[in-house]
Amino acid sequence: MSESTVERPQERIPTGVPGLDIVLHGGLLRGGVYMLQGRPGAGKTILTNQMCFHHAAQGGRVLYSTLLAETHERLLFNLEPLSFFDTSRIPEQIAYLSAFSTLEQGGLKGLVEVLRREARARKSTLLVVDGLVTAEESAQSKREFKKFIHELQIHANLVGCTILLLTSSSAEPVGPEHTMVDGVLELFDNRLGRRAERELEVRKFRGSSYLRGGHAFQITQDGIVVHPRIEALLQNPSRQDPCKRERVSTGVAQLDKMLNGGLPCASTSVLFGPTGAGKTTFGLHFLDESSKSEPGLLFGFYETPPRLLLKAKALGLGLEKKQQQGVFDMMWHSPTERILDGLGNKLLQAVRERGVKRLFIDGVDGFQQSAAYPERISHFLAALTNELRVLGVTTLYTSELQEMFSQQVILPISGISSLVENIFFLRFVELHSKLHRMLSVVKMRDSDYDSSLQEYRITSRGITLAAETFQGAQSVLTGDAKPATRPRRKGLLKKRSR
């Protein structure tokens, strides 16, 4: 194959918007014409200007033209509080041009001529047309409007200038402009009950693959942050599964003995139990084994880091010291309105950057409460769990059971039992008018284990197990244990003969 026939990848123009280049698999293509659409207030202007200032910071030159939009003074005033805004880039690298009067006097033909002339004069590598709907309304026919788009495409191809066209969402599912541009990005502001969540979707992107479907985004002090949907981002794990045979200590010696040495390395476990059963306490023991070779991370939703450190200290655990040594850390998120994929991406980033090998997620239900679409949660956890495994992370989740005293156990997240290798069950048990805490190992995939029911006690020296408590008892798993009835000897029921 000659060099002339080798297909070369097209040059990318990174947007500089966190998460968006991941969705676009590297950014926009140089010389492409892209449409950015959405209802008023969806975030189009912030997103586009964020791209413009990043492009200028990379050495590019931008021409930002407006058609019957907000004044430039108002536009810059609204952008000023955002961290990406840099007045030193204006007007040398980023020039703002009001082209509405040109459109009024010369129509679409006059507008194209002005845009071409100004873009060439400024050597622009990025051209923005803000207010495309105004140009469409000025067109005498759909054909004339399509011709306008075509003329912009010719300019983009000739000089290698990337073009962004901003417009409101069209009433028509597919307008004439959609068929001509190289890509369509749409912004939404979805109302979900009393909650609202912003979403971005790439509807079309010629010449490149991309992450399909909706991706949540936020408008922050730094501009827009896109959170790629975990199930789309991690359709397949990023590397091969290491499948190690080593065991990882739970931090409770008696439990390790029940598990034939501890948890399988790079496995995922879930600890089910009602409130007050001690789920977090087990997790703190697990993290107390953190070391330089096995850094630990607590990712929690409910108890704050200071309270958790106090709890660990009361149990005789040295997590505070391990945190000072840099082998253990905590990330806490208030269980309020969060973005599910934001949490997932933040967790994975921390795991990769810190080389985490012991991960305790205290309250997997916190993910469920953050999900705008609850039906996603099992797919989200499947993708997250698979990625953690291939990163060599041994993960322990906790999940709260709603009923403290019930013979029926309903798992709070459907399908979670199929996503994990190991399941532990905690519950309160009444025996002889006294309340006990009980631990049972329900499942360990591809591993033998001790299935006996164990009482566990939480003391100032941590967790201890007591196997003898429930010996000779029955109905323990129902929570209402009873001493086993001894069989009577046969001769006792017969009358003595005289």
What do you see in this structure?
The chain is of the alpha/beta class and 498 residues long. It folds into 2 domains: 222 residues, P-loop containing nucleotide triphosphate hydrolases (Rossmann fold), CATH 3.40.50.300; 237 residues, P-loop containing nucleotide triphosphate hydrolases (Rossmann fold). It is built from 15 helices and 24 strands. A 9-stranded mixed beta sheet has the order 5-4-6-7-3-8-9-10-11, sandwiched between helices. Strands 16-15-17-18-14-19-20-21-22 form a 9-stranded mixed beta sheet. Helix 4 packs parallel to helix 6 and helix 13 packs parallel to helix 15. It is an enzyme of class 2 (transferase). This is non-specific serine/threonine protein kinase.
Quick recap of the structure?
The chain has helices at residues 20-23, 44-57, 72-79, 100-121, 132-138, 142-159, 176-180, 230-233, 253-258, 279-287, 305-314, 319-325, 340-354, 365-370, 377-390, and strands spanning 12-13, 28-29, 33-38, 62-66, 94-98, 126-130, 162-167, 183-192, 195-205, 214-220, 223-227, 247-248, 263-264, 268-273, 296-300, 328-332, 358-362, 394-400, 422-431, 434-444, 454-459, 462-466, 473-474, 482-483.
